[in-house]
Amino acid sequence: MAFLGSYAVGFPIALLVYFLAGEQLARWPSTIFVIGVLSAVMITLASFTLADRYAALLFGGGSLFAALTYATLGWFWVIKPQQEALLAKA
């Protein structure tokens, strides 16, 4: 359930962040992980606000895992090749 929610909300946000800050992400790789962690924190806080502590643990843990997985895969599949292409141009 948390994976589907993270995908439904996180994927459009990830595309928006990539198109607006793709070159910045290639320069500073830690930025993508900070974005992932902050996204998971926001989903956890929203789950806690809408439900209770149990929902925050249930959805927050899954959201944290999903956000960091997406950040790691995004780094290896998208950002790292883009960074290598930028370094090759320079």
> Any low-confidence stretches, pLDDT <50, length ≥5?
none
Helix/strand/pairing category = mainly alpha
Order of helical and strand elements = HHH
Question: Percent of residues in helical segments?
Answer: over 70%
- In whole angstroms, the N-to-C terminal distance is 44 Å
Q: Identify the overall geometry.
A: elongated
The rounded Rg comes to: 15 Å
Q: Can you count the beta strands?
A: 0
Keywords: Membrane, Transmembrane, Transmembrane helix
Transmembrane segments: 6-21, 28-48, 54-79
Mind explaining what this structure looks like?
- It is a single chain.
- With 90 residues, the protein is mainly alpha-helical.
- The chain is 93% helix and 0% strand.
- The protein contains three helices and no strands.
- The chain has helices at residues 2-27, 30-50, 53-89.
- Helix 1 runs antiparallel to helix 2, helix 1 runs parallel beside helix 3 and helix 2 (30-50) packs antiparallel against helix 3.
- The longest helix has 37 residues, at 53-89.
- The radius of gyration is 15 Å and the shape is elongated.
- The mean pLDDT is 75.
- The chain crosses the membrane at residues 6-21, 28-48, 54-79.
- Keywords: Membrane, Transmembrane, Transmembrane helix.
